[in-house]
Amino acid sequence: MEETPQHCLSRLPDNSALKQQELPAHRLYFTARRVLFVFFTTGIFCLCMGIILILSARSTQEIEINYTRICANCAKLRENASNFDKECTCSIPFYLSGKMMGNVYMYYKLYGFYQNLYRYVRSRSNRQLVGKDVKAVEDCAPFKMSENKTPIVPCGAIANSMFNDTIILSHNINSSVQIKVPMLKSGLTWWTDKYVKFQNPSSKNLADEFRGTTKPPNWPKPIYDLDKKDPRNNGFLNDDFIVWMRAAAFPTFKKLYGRLNRTHHFIEGLPAGNYSFNITYNFPVTRFQGEKSVVLSTLTWCGGNSLFLGLAYTVTGAITWLASFAMMAIHITLKNKQMSFFHQ
User: Fold this and answer.
1) Could you tell me if 79 and 110 lie in one domain?
2) Taking burial as the number of CB atoms within 10 A of a residue's CB, which of 29, 42, 95, 263 is the most buried?
3) Do 315 and 283 sit in the same domain of this protein?
């Protein structure tokens, strides 16, 4: 009998249950009763969640005012780029029929603005936005350098097209008394955006840190001077800037502009009555057949007034239930045929 060479023995797997594939195995066996129970339970859960989410979404209060045509004179002025330095304002009065209780949020809403285009989304510098190198503009075409070859900060197409209308909400108590509704411009962003994806350079003096750079062509002022009231809300950590830089997936979207500061007359929310939006019109939309709106809305535990999630759960539950009844009918039919066969 020939002996196995030593070098062949060294390549043999160990004589263990794992390497010899002798571990105990368990084969799941699902009876019809168990499968139907799982389907029925899943269907009930999805239907209940769908109904709860739909009722919750319908309990929110929301008012939307489209001001594209109301501010038609300003829109026409902004169609000509040479009028960028001319200020244009318009006032939009409206009546709030019911009290908006609790936290109230203000959004701007754009129609027909495609933030999801590949070249548009890629036109940004993440190294610049996290404060590592403010002059890193390699990925920001076509907004990398100014005409005199100065690096643009923040660079890129997304930053250059930032929404820059100024919206002020006023409460008209009577014909002679008008109160500005206090709106907070902080706490508008995702935590990961504010503290991970966007950071200012380490220097305390932002103007010195951004020396040797220039603002984007469409911006009226540089990145370090966006909020004169709150020095902490400047640079790459400006909340409005961070909110805009998170690209939307669809051409119709709304982004958070401010939240109600619940003080004085507005502790419980927005009281019913006469209000007005005073808008400084800067962002042009008519050139690409777009539209703009202001939205005031309350929120619930599951978000705003979108019915999508509730409808998705409801449809999923209904389909699961239909599948359950279909499988139960097939199972009973096959079982009756099997019984009649054995009786014969």
Assistant:
1) yes
2) 42
3) no
